[in-house]
Design goal:
The protein is mainly α. The chain is built from 3 helices and no strands.
Length: 87
């Protein structure tokens, strides 16, 4: 099939880059780009994310779910110390 299309300058640059890299014609590069885009093969499937976890041991002395309360307490202690020194 023959048709006329108007390509944006960035698309033309990508097609011409593909032509040079693979030593193919403009027609082949454009057809390959259209096939890849229409099939949805543009992005390779990402690997499934997996996070390695470690046991923190038994009988923790610090409860991580109370970390903000601990940080507030430390900040309050420091403010009280500075106030007592009149800074």
């Amino acid at each position: 099939m023959r048709t006329t299309v108007t390509l944006d300058s960035d698309v033309e640059r990508l097609i011409r880059d593909a032509m040079r890299e693979r030593d193919i014609s403009f027609k082949e590069a454009l057809n390959d780009a259209a096939r890849t885009g229409l099939r949805g093969n543009v992005h390779k499937r990402a690997r499934k994310f997996a996070q390695k976890t470690f046991r923190m041991g038994e009988g923790q002395e610090f409860r991580w779910d109370k970390a903000l309360a601990v940080a507030d307490s430390i900040e309050d202690d420091e403010l009280n110390r500075k106030l007592s020194l009149r800074k």
